[in-house]
Amino acid sequence: MTRMKPTLVLFAAAAFAGVAALAQAQEPVSALKGHDANAPVDVVADRIEVQDRADRAIFSGNVHVTQGELTLDTVRLTVAYASAGGIQIQRLDASGGVVVKSPSENARGDFAVYDLDRKLITLVGNVRLNRGESQILGSRLVIDLNSGRAVIDGGPAGVAQSGGRVRGHFTVPKRGS
């Protein structure tokens, strides 16, 4: 098991704060604002390849990442780091059926990038966010961990499952008469 600092798994809760906020016609705010990005991270994979001269490590095959109550599953995870004065992770790239889960929501997409220096998480390609029975479809999700802002784009028409637009389906709680 490999231990790393902040990781891609941070974006699951962030994505779904946007779902609840959109349902109320407000600007989406990440549930991860204030999340401890320095919490320990565990990574399990079938294989790891360290490319020290390129300052990166590649985890492949059934990659499972956990940080607190958040998890990330993917086929491949590339960790880019600087090695001056110890290892400092700069960027995480996940590819191949990326699934991120928190206790209350999950996000899916083809690829994900977490830029630790800028504290930005981006999920692209057939993005689907679910919280309970509510769902948002889009082409790209960007989460700013500094501000807590989550933005979902529809992407080009005919390319993504969203048809070039952001699509949402929200459940409404039963209210008394």
Automatic annotation (TrEMBL):
Q: What does the UniProt keyword field contain?
A: Signal
State the superkingdom: Bacteria
Residue span(s) of domain Organic solvent tolerance-like N-terminal: 43-148
Q: Does Signal appear among the keywords?
A: yes
Annotated signal peptide: 1-25
Q: Which InterPro entries match?
A: LPS_export_LptA (IPR052037), OstA-like_N (IPR005653)
Name listed for the protein in its UniProt record: OstA family protein
Q: What species was this sequence derived from? A: Sphingomonas anseongensis
